[in-house]
Structures
1.
Amino acid sequence: MEYAETVKAINHLFTYKIFDRQIYHKVQSLFSNLSVRDAAGIFCDLSNEAIFGLYLILDDLKTTNEAKEHIIYKYYGLKIKEQASETIEGSLVEQILEDYKKTSFLALESLIVKMLKEDRISENYFEKFKGSFDREIIEKEIYSNSIRSKIRGKFPLSESELLKLFEYENYKLIEDALAQELIECSALPLFRLPNKGDKNKKIKTVLFNKATKLIEMKP
């Protein structure tokens, strides 16, 4: 069976959102016709109904982990889009954590990081994330989350907070704080003109120039 026909057949099986063991066996048979490459990329061509249906049988489905990881990532992407509010519901976060514990799929970690960047997860889950995912990555995003909250509240950043942002190379947040004049006066001298071979020289130069202008504006 050709790839396009296989996709069409899988989508058709889940058209009416009905699931039973017979459908599982049909899906398994269709997946067995796919090459490793096609199985990994099929999530792009499956209907939303098929993605939701496949998620229910993913544990039993005999296919590559790469294919499963792509399907589960798309599944959660669709579930997140369904959320009307800014903050993702706790039950969905718990579900992601449970699936990560079961699969260790990096796609789920990247999904959590993405939601942290978008400030869509309650801080009630932050400690759980530190114990579940790569601690360094999660701590960086949690810290950035707290700084974004501080900037939204119009609270100036301290020297220690600025140094931490430099450590994390979060120049976007530093630039946002400078643009809103939300860096304490005592912290402005921390900006330095980078040397010729310095990493991120361009953005560091931009930040130094902006900080220098703020210093010159101060009485």
2.
Amino acid sequence: MRYLIFIALGLLSGCDLSDKPSQINSSTELKEQLVKVNNEIITTSELDVVMDQTFGSYASLQLGELGQKKVLESIIIKKLMAQSQLASMSTDEIYELELAMRIHRDELLSKRYIQKNISPEPVSDEMALSYYEKNLADFGQKTTRKYHLVRLNISKGQSPDAAQTVLEQFSDTADWQSLSINTVFDGQTVQFFTGHQAEKGLDPFYQNIIAKLAVNEASDSFSLKGSLIKLKVVSEQVNNALPFSQVRTQIKKSLAPLQLKKAIQEDAALLKKQAKITHYAMD
């Protein structure tokens, strides 16, 4: 499949797929002919292209004469298959193939245009530093906040206001763990929990409250699923990001494709401005 379109281009070179005439089978290439497969000529240039696409540069030196003959035999077989397939295709099928060839041709030409005409602005240290400062978490910065939580379950008939009064004792400066053991409401002690905001499974509702509290600051009491709850952040540990000097090269590499995309978009806008484009209604 890799060379089917390439082969088909040769087979259908008479089709009007370009404003410019095809140069395949020119008098120059006819001098390079290696094999004639029915009415089609395989040239040294075609062999070189296939070897380069398959094995990379200097393939002829690496493969040797025997290897080149094997590649040539493969091209011959593909030619025969392509000729046989083309002969059996209907007009509609040939039209679909021409469309695929046209799309592939435009893809190749646009890539070559980008290589020859578009030079993106290099990623500067300032650009990399700006990205680094806005995305410190991507480079290892992490804040871990430890919290305490107290909860009172409110059964039917119990007074929410009375429970609220009980939890008011859990202030910013109180020892919540000790206080919870000694505080009783309607025969039940206050439930005490501790953890950190990044722990797996922590309710996002709790995470949101913890994120807004300062260290040693208690939240207001709130009702959730039949319970009265209060939270306090008791400590915060910040792990710094890797130094910019260690990740500068990595950032520049990651931003380079974005710079290229930006340059392509700017060039495309200019091309569209200079061109005459007519849109027709789509069915």
